[in-house]
Specification:
The protein has helices at residues 5-14, 23-33, 40-54, 65-74, 79-90, 94-99, 103-114, 137-140, 155-168, 197-203, 207-214, 236-248; strands at residues 124-128, 147-152, 172-176, 187-194, 216-225, 253-260, 263-270. Helix 8 (137-140) links the parallel strand 1 (124-128) and strand 2. It has 12 helices and 7 strands. With 279 residues, it is of the alpha/beta class.
Length: 279
């Protein structure tokens, strides 16, 4: 017999492989998927499958979060140890792991995009669907007074990122938030959405557009993967270029494509005047 929304959400969050996800995301995916299933078990399976596609599939090799957090805290104050640890941890998330072989190219490109004027570094950055992106901080050269606010639906990743921000001495915070259902608001110098758009729109078409519309930022960096998790390319670059053009149509940004190994990447600069001072 059909299950209630609350029963499906409860069953999914009770499962070992899904209990770390944002309850708000689980509830939102349940709203979409459960009505398509005639029985409780089918509804739970549909919700789990979609959640795996948008989140869990990207962190199959994640280190034990508690061990990672303890190791980060133990390395507080030792920048070299934190750099070494961050490399090891980034292999646990597909998006960051893909960048590591080209880190000597990726880091300078990101530094130029994040900080085009070294004399005027950003005061606040918001990293949406961050994964383990913030573990690149030791190479980005940001002042540690720059407020780096990171958001993700996976509490395991947020625990690691929060511990790393604290150990590195970076201002900011890490927050579990379903940014597709509850867009991040407030002002910032820069927003980062690296490989996030496909996952946002896989939950619900148009999610990424709503996220972008809610931003009050001077600049945004948006990237797409150019191959699947399995390594297939399947014309992804051309497809995502069309997706990008539709995504920003009518929005107050001018776009510049930048070279980033393994990613289709764009910088968006606001054209309708700078927002108010970052929060």
């Amino acid at each position: 017999m059909p299950a209630t929304h609350a029963q499906v959400v409860e069953a999914v969050l009770a499962a070992r492989h899904f209990r770390h996800l944002s309850p708000e995301l689980v509830a939102r995916v349940t709203n979409i998927e459960a009505p398509k299933a005639p029985r409780h078990a089918d509804a739970v399976d549909r919700v789990k499958k979609r959640l795996h596609q948008v989140s869990n599939a990207y962190a199959p090799s994640l280190h034990a979060p508690r061990d990672a957090i303890e190791a980060i805290r133990a390395a507080t104050g030792d920048d070299d140890a934190l750099r070494t640890l961050s490399i090891s941890l980034m292999y646990g998330h597909a998006s960051t792991a893909e960048r590591l072989p080209d880190i000597d190219i990726v880091v300078p490109a990101l530094r130029r995009a994040i900080m085009p004027d070294a004399a005027a570094p950003p005061r606040r950055i918001i990293d949406l669907a961050c994964g383990l992106n913030p573990l690149l901080l030791p190479w980005l050269g940001l002042p540690r007074t720059c407020k780096y606010d990171a958001y993700d639906v996976d509490s395991r990743l947020i625990g690691i990122v929060g511990a790393f921000l604290e150990a590195w001495g970076q201002a900011g915070a890490a927050t579990v938030q379903d940014v597709g259902g509850d867009p991040v608001r407030g002002t910032a110098d820069l927003a980062i959405l690296m490989k996030a758009v496909p996952c946002l729109d896989q939950v619900q078409p148009g999610n990424a557009r709503r996220v972008l519309e809610a931003l009050d930022v001077r600049r945004a960096i948006i990237t797409w993967p150019v191959q699947s998790l399995g390594g297939a390319q399947k014309g992804m670059r051309a497809t995502y270029r069309r997706t990008f053009e539709a995504l920003i149509e009518g929005l107050p940004y001018v776009a510049t494509e930048v070279t980033l190994p393994g990613e289709l990447a764009f910088i968006l600069d606001r054209t309708d005047g700078a927002p108010s001072d970052p929060d």
